[in-house]
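Bug #77: duplicate submission created two jobs. Keeping one. Sequence:
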Amino acid sequence: MSAPRELVVELLQEKLSQLLEFGPDTHKEARWIQWHQEMRGILRNAFGEDSAELKAYSSLTRWYPIAGSTEQIRRETRKQWSQIIEGARGFLEALILQIKRFGLPCGTAETSDAIVTPRVFIAHGSESRALVLLIEFLTSIGCEPIIAEKMPSEDRSVNENVEH
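Kept job's structure:
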């Protein structure tokens, strides 16, 4: 295997092992958002923005609106989350096997120069649906969101961290 192919397989295997750690309510946590962003970035850089792989992954991890009573919403959310996790697991396992057997498609990370992803700095007050939507939008247009509150602080405040 060439170095880029090995790197892509290694990154995808790492994402698969991290995925298996998500529980029934982890869709509410920032680590899911970060995992999802990183996964999209790996697929975008390895296969391209318009690739079938990125489109398939995006389709598997899409949330659909849920209506009903609080209990119905909770039940449907857990069901949808379970389907997303299982779909992503199967997708990753199949993709890893495909890359190991056949390599990366022509014109991807194996045969082209590295793709530079624009980085966008975000400073916000707290975790919210708006933040999730902003992150999803930025990643969908090919940007890598950098969230101020998630940056290593070395005992600095968020404002001091931004200035640093």
